[in-house]
Design a protein that fits this description.
heterodimer, A: alpha/beta, D-Maltodextrin-Binding Protein, domain 2, six-stranded mixed beta sheet, 44% helix, 13% strand, B: mainly alpha, MetI-like fold, two-stranded antiparallel ribbon, 13 helices
Chain lengths: 439, 280
């Protein structure tokens, strides 16, 4: 009997204590930041930050902390590594349970997801109107991602300008230089890439199958979007989109683009030297440079442009991210920190560029000497200055609230079209899918 | 009296959320701005018009109909082999077959993805043996991607079900098997006419568990193929996750979907009970 009683009390106490422990842990998690002293003097307190890449944005945040600490030694920047998927899931669950107290002061957000989150969960964000950040020092195409109702909710961090990176040694073998791939159209590109493939057996591009990123970059390069300014889908009968997908299909069928199944395979394809180039946001250069044995054999240039589409350019963007201040933040401290680092410190961007490849969106950096330095890995090209030049010419793109729905519907359409479905019919279906999701 | 704490905990942790989810499934709206839908069953009506949902139901049932029977048959055969009294190293075999269950769902999915990559082990092997000339894009085509998912499920869960059968077999009266042998029944006949009928309750249990598990399939769809190409390998639970967390959060609709999954599991379990239970 005694034993049974003990067991019963244990059975009752154990789950309860676990449950209580869980609650207790939750309530104390992010230490509330102490309020700062006078606005002008040195500040104190803790700023908690969520971001995800130790070699990239976490590194940048830590460097920013060092710079800020010189004038404000009592401020502690506490970076919590949180993957992008986790940031999104946490935001959703916290908003859903109205637990804004658990939010960090600052979090990083993918540009493409920014409008969706601000519009769905306005109570999670603080806008930048009361900060000292000067948004005119950022390209309009980039701040547009995080602007809702003319209010800025995000401070652009890394640059998503698209580049075409090519292996110059492979091109040389086929009798080309990187200049032959500059300011060209996609039909030129395919013709030349076929020669490269014939002579060297190497495709010039690779892409994850079922990913619509490549088609999206082509679409944006012509200044077109999946949505109009009012957020209505414009997929069905979108000439620029149709041309983008047809071009992509031709890339695949002519064998100059090889499809792989996962991100690791994609990165592996050019790091291992099986594919002689890649087309993506400039952040991909971080992965390209992991192939130390290929140093000096790479060059970057602008994108091919779509044939016969009005407004087609050689410039586009993919990805990029911006810093957001949460509604739970010590606003004064967090905004001052961001304004003095990511929107005000040349030293910061000069430090993080060579080691992480984080290219600034902050325009004053264009005349920085560090950006103009030739990069040995890219055969002495001043790569980053080029990227900033490209970034000024990237056409604006309407992401709207339903960007991911649109992109995924188009990705599915791309897969179907490659397998032989009529392009116009596949796009009509994608349009219907997105309209259904918006209901 | 002693049941009370457990009952209360189950009530608070399981039934209360279920009731909440049902109420949620009657609401509609984005993010936190949820309102009761008009009509109340709007989300359920919407499911019937959702082509992607229909596709995911179809995918899930393809997995269910192909994978569950194959798995249970293999598990039965393996259990029968291991139950042989003359078999040596029994513990070793049993552990080896059960071990996949101890592997994390995500990690095994990642390993399968690597093995079936375009430049992965399987393609290298087939090319080396000259069965194929160029690599097969296993995960990039609907048919082969589904096969890979089914193979993954077989590898992961067969041993798990086998242990159930093995446990049941060890409770069988050995004299029944001996009697069959004396009556001149071969190993197959003994298995089919003596062992299997006695295992019926266990087979029913594993069938319900596996059906339930397959309908709620998530990790394989998410990690192996991301639901691609073009949604043709996505499972229902994966779609539910996508609706709630990846796209514009539509929790009302997601909750409705989860209730439909619950109803499907309940109906299938009821059918299996009806068919499998012949105790009277």
């Amino acid at each position: 009997m005694n034993k049974l009683q003990k067991f019963a009390s244990l059975a009752l106490a154990l789950p309860l204590s676990i449950a209580l422990a869980a609650c207790g842990g939750g309530a104390t998690a992010p230490a509330p930041t102490t309020t700062s002293a006078a606005a002008s003097g040195p500040k104190s307190g803790t700023v908690t930050v969520w971001c995800w890449d130790p070699a990239f944005n976490i590194y940048a945040m830590n460097e920013a902390a060092k710079i800020y600490n010189k004038d404000n030694p009592d401020v502690k920047i506490n970076v919590v590594e949180t993957s992008w998927d986790d940031v999104q899931t946490k935001l959703t669950t916290l908003a859903q349970s109205r637990e804004t107290k658990q939010l960090p002061d600052i979090f990083l957000m993918q540009n493409n997801a920014f409008q969706k989150n601000v519009i769905n969960y306005p109570e999670m964000f603080s806008d930048f109107s009361k900060s000292s950040v000067d948004f005119s020092q950022f390209p309009a195409g980039v701040t547009a991602y995080s602007t809702v109702d003319n209010k800025n909710y995000g401070l652009p961090f890394d640059n998503g300008t698209a580049v075409l990176a090519l292996r110059t040694d492979v091109l040389k073998e086929a009798g080309f230089t990187a200049d032959d791939f500059t300011n060209i159209t996609w039909s030129d590109f395919i013709a030349k890439a076929k020669v490269v493939k014939e002579k060297t057996k190497k495709p010039l591009l690779s892409n994850t199958s079922g990913s619509g990123d490549m088609a999206m970059m082509m679409l944006q390069s012509a200044g077109a979007s999946l949505f109009d300014e009012n957020g209505n889908p414009t997929i069905s009968g979108n000439q620029a989109l149709l041309k983008s997908i047809e071009t992509y299909k031709e890339l695949v069928s002519s064998g100059v683009l090889t499809e792989v199944n996962s991100w690791d395979e994609y990165v592996g394809s050019f790091v291992n030297g099986n594919v002689a180039g890649t087309l993506n946001g400039v952040w991909i250069l971080g992965s390209v440079q992991t192939a130390k044995d290929q140093s000096g054999k790479w060059a970057i240039t602008n994108l091919p442009k779509l044939d016969g589409v009005t407004g087609a350019t050689n410039y586009s963007a993919n990805g990029g991210s911006s810093w957001a201040i949460s509604s739970n933040a010590n606003y004064e401290l967090a905004s001052d920190f961001l304004a003095k680092t990511f929107a005000g410190s040349k030293q910061l961007f000069d430090t993080i560029l060579p080691s992480s490849g984080a290219v600034a969106n902050w325009l004053p950096m264009a005349d920085s000497s560090v950006y103009a330095e030739p990069q040995e890995f890219f055969g002495g090209q001043p790569v980053f200055q080029k990227v900033i030049e490209f970034s000024k010419q990237v056409p604006k793109n309407n992401t709207g609230v339903y960007y991911y729905e649109g992109r995924d519907a188009v990705s599915a359409a791309v897969t179907k079209i490659i397998n032989g479905t009529d392009p116009a019919a596949a796009l009509d279906e994608a349009q219907k899918t997105v309209e259904f999701a918006m209901k | 009296m002693f049941l009370l704490p457990a009952a209360l905990l189950i009530g608070a942790m399981s039934f209360y959320p279920m009731a909440q989810a049902f109420i949620l499934s009657l609401k509609t709206g984005r993010g936190t701005r949820l309102n009761f839908a008009d009509p109340l069953w709007y989300n359920y009506q919407r499911l019937l018009q959702d082509d992607i949902f229909k596709l995911t139901v179809q995918n899930t049932f393809v997995y269910l109909i192909i994978q569950v029977p194959i798995m249970l048959v293999i598990a039965l055969i393996l259990a029968n082999l291991l139950n042989d009294r003359n078999l040596r190293f029994k513990g070793l075999w049993r552990t080896a077959i059960f071990l996949p269950c101890a592997v994390g769902l995500v990690s095994y999915s990642l390993v399968f993805r690597t093995i079936f990559a375009t430049d992965g082990l399987v393609n290298d092997m087939l090319m080396g043996l000259h069965f194929i000339d160029s690599p097969i894009n296993w995960l990039g085509q609907t048919g082969t991607a589904r096969i890979v998912i089914i193979l993954g499920l077989l590898w992961r869960w067969t041993g798990y079900n086998m242990v159930f059968y093995l446990a049941a077999m060890q409770n069988l009266d050995y004299s029944t098997l001996e009697a069959a042998k004396i009556d001149g029944a071969g190993p197959f006949k003994t298995f089919w006419y003596v062992t299997v009928p006695q295992l019926r309750p266990m087979i029913l249990l594993t069938a319900i568990l596996s059906t339930n598990g397959t309908i709620q399939l998530f990790d394989e769809s998410w990690n192996l193929t991301q639901g691609g190409p073009a949604y043709t390998t996505m499972s229902m639970s994966h779609y539910l996750f996508e609706l709630s967390f990846q796209k514009n959060p539509n929790f009302g609709y997601g909750a409705a979907l989860s209730y439909v999954i619950l109803i499907m599991v309940a109906i299938l379990a009821a059918i299996q009970m009806k068919v499998g239970d012949k105790r009277d």
